[in-house]
TrEMBL record:
Family: Belongs to the bacterial solute-binding protein SsuA/TauA family.
Protein's name according to its UniProt entry: Transporter substrate-binding domain-containing protein
Phylogenetic lineage: Bacteria, Pseudomonadati, Pseudomonadota, Alphaproteobacteria, Hyphomicrobiales
Top-level taxon in the UniProt lineage: Bacteria
The organism of origin for this protein: Hansschlegelia quercus
Classification via PANTHER family: ALIPHATIC SULFONATES-BINDING PROTEIN-RELATED
Solute-binding protein family 3/N-terminal domain ranges (all copies): 41-261
One Pfam short name: NMT1
Amino acid sequence: MSSFPTLSRRSFLATSAAASGALGLGLKPGGALARNTDKVRLTFGPSGGLTLIAKERGALEKSLGDQGIKVEWVGPFPNHAPTLQAVTGGSADFSFGGSTTPAFAAIIAGSPLVFTQFLIYRPRTTAIIAKDGSGIDKVEDLVGKSVAVNRSGLGEFLLVAALEKHGIDRSKVKFVYLNPPDAAPALASGKVDAWSMWSPGVDIARYEYKAHNVFLEERDLDFQIDFTTWLTSRNFATENSDIVRAVNAAFSAEADWASAHPEDAEKIAQGAPPRYADPVREGFLSLKRRYEIYPVTDEAFVGRLQKAADWLVERKVLPEQVTVKELLAQI
């Protein structure tokens, strides 16, 4: 039996779109490929997301290697924003599959980046947490308190959304801008009262610091504003569209495998030596996390992302308007 996963309908469509794109470029089977390099530099982080699973499992690297593409892993990076800087600065070719909000912020600031593919993790586990016994049990309790968030990122977005849902002016809560490696000890030591964070950082902190959810995205928010995405430079996408399509297809296959094999995927994400305790991994396993890939050709998804960007601009999480259709890799 083949060790490669059966492609879902969405992944099949994404792969078919890639094949159609190749024909549109006039590439015939066995013909010249649209690439000027035989190497792709992929970024990764310690967060246990799909990119880390792909790196540790090795199937993505083998798949690309079979197509004459050598993978070089660059990292680890603590969150998405530094990987965007690495791509912009020329030390990497792809961001590591992270939040769309800092990606928009980087593009607005002048980074010549384009989206190559999108991902939704289900269920959504981003949360605002506070330590047990802190007296912070609901969003209203955050008034007059300090909350650690990553600037123009998923953490800041979730706090803004939570305050808005509960009719609380954001000026009544202190936003403390910290990246995850600094935010975790700040919560532990009491330098901040709460933390808005994604998985697995929020799950690790909840377990290690005896904390609880104040606001949970899946439970408390009936819409999604921030998504997971990969980006590359506009030049790389233009000059190496063959590689971009191959990387997209490889991550799509990885998403199918992880969704179909949750126990194996969670063990890989936990790592060896383990990045977090077994109870945290068991919590993830109980969720039966699913990984849904959306290509840049999915007009319905692009429409959702445009509405999300507009929402962020209206609330000044992003400083100016963006047109998502202009920011997609033409592959």
